[in-house]
Amino acid sequence: MPIHRTINLQDLSDTDFERIDDVVMRCAYAAQNQFGHRFDERIYENDVAARLRAEGFEVNTQVPVTVTHGSFQKTYYLDLIVNQMLYELKAAKGIVSEHDMQALHYAMLQDVRLVKLINFGEVRVRGKLLPNAMHGRSRHQPKMRISGWQPLSDSCERLVQQLNSVISDLGTHLDVRLYNEVLVHLLGGEVNCLQRADVCVDGQTRGTHLVQFHSPQHGFIMTSFHEPQPNFLLHCQVLLRHVPVLTGLQWINLSHSRLEITTVTKTEDYTTE
């Protein structure tokens, strides 16, 4: 099993969720009334957990979930589980898209259809229910597009094979940083894969830039853009132009169920109108 859960959650009915959530939100408001909105996240987590236990609920905090692939291992910690319902807590000025993505990432790891964000950092507690539309085996069937891909070396072939293995094992829709971390690990870890390369203008060095290498002359970049990004190709071309050691890049974009690999080289013109 590539995803090792401490607690296996069952999907709740809407009625069960509402029954639990009514009490959770009441406790969340009480916690903020007690502490205001400027404390660290863990203060609210501990206070809400204590209030819920006093109400007779089964409560777990900082629940570990470990992801493995081969020798790679990473553990995440889920903030709050209340009677099988997953909550992600924040103490931020406002809820942003990165918070949504993190909460949905945890829902994917637990393979449940609902997760709720609760933010204590605003003047009034804010809750946001997020539906996880993709769970189960459907996450293991990506739509792959490699029409813009070409192997620049044997290492490019291995990179694609490793990527396919990771996605087949873990499924799609997880945080793109996780897939990138796994690839870096498979390529020998940060000490071998991440290197600073000279950045030059007209033969003069301006400094160095951190590059992810999968071979001595080829790098890779992983993103999760949901819309076409023609300008990103231009930025890749600029990178290649000013980093002499690089002769090509493999740009991997994983957007939900769509996987696209594009090869960028120094000789191609990606100018757009």
Give an account of the 3D structure.
The protein is α+β, with helices and mostly antiparallel strands and 273 residues long. 35% of the residues lie in helices and 32% in strands. It contains 7 helices and 12 strands. The strands form 2 sheets. Strands 1-2-3-4-5-6 form a 6-stranded mixed beta sheet, sandwiched between helices. A 6-stranded mixed beta sheet has the order 7-12-11-10-9-8.
Beta-strand percent range: 25-35%
Q: Average pLDDT, to the nearest integer?
A: 94
The helix/strand order is EHHEEEHEEEHHHEEEHEE
Q: What's the total count of β strands?
A: 12
Rg over CA atoms, rounded to whole Å, is 22 Å
Largest sheet: 6 strands, mixed
In helices, the fraction of residues equals 25-40%
Overall geometry comes to elongated
N-C termini distance: 47 Å
Tally of individual helices: 7
Strand order of the largest sheet: 1-2-3-4-5-6
Low-pLDDT parts are none
Find the structural class using helix and strand composition. Answer: alpha+beta
